[in-house]
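Contributing new records

If you add data, match the layout below exactly. Sequence lines come first and carry their own label; structure lines follow with theirs. Keep one chain per record. Anything else will be rejected by the validation script.
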Amino acid sequence: MSEDVRKIFRFAPSPNGYLHLGHAYSALLDFDLAQREGGRFLLRLEDIDQGRARPELEAAIYEDLAWLGLSWEEPVRRQSEHLDDYAAALAKLDALGLLYPCVCSRADIARAALADPPRDLDGAPLYPGTCRGKKLARAGANLRLDMAKAAALVGGEVSWREHGKEIVAAPQEWGDVVLARKDIGTSYHIAVTIDDALQGVTDVVRGRDLYEATRIHRLLQELLGLPAPAYRHHALVLDEDCRKLAKSRLSKPLRELRAEGATPADVRAMLDLP
């Protein structure tokens, strides 16, 4: 039997709020590309934060995507069921001497910041390395990546394919990112990197807001010896105030549009999708 070499796309929402038009745009792009290229479409639930994930919101994701006309392979991968996979990856990084415990909260970092502090690529004050080199207990602490050491191991730069072009970037601009939160034992960065590798994802199609995070994901792939997908970061769907749609701002969910009489074709038209 020949090896399946079809492209694999995925849509990976978090069940901590209802899907809105921004989610629909990403899901439809992934699904349409998979259909067009004879590939596979996977649905994954990024539910490692069990304090925010809710069963009724998971059910709503399935309902909304099915209403849009999407179908996906079963079983759906839930991150909360694969914490051992992420722990194994963290153990490999730890064996390389790249992790250290940190007890600093975001408030601590903000208080310690200068009047005009250097900032990471999300705009937050850059972590100053307060706990790096200290002998701290790991219980009750986050685990941070020693970025200088990690970047040195890959030659100081990472690269990826984006729309057919090679992008070269320095991961150091993120500073010492948290790779394992003290409350959940892992992080988005580790989980998404391991999931994409284990599921054989060949093409990551996601919002432009995650473009800079690709530096971290490519760094982790290099450190862990994982394959690199091709990346496509699409434009964000904006509201009337030109802000990206977000669950935290209670952007109008798809289920509300549906209740108002919108059809899947209407949603595609709103998103300028065929």
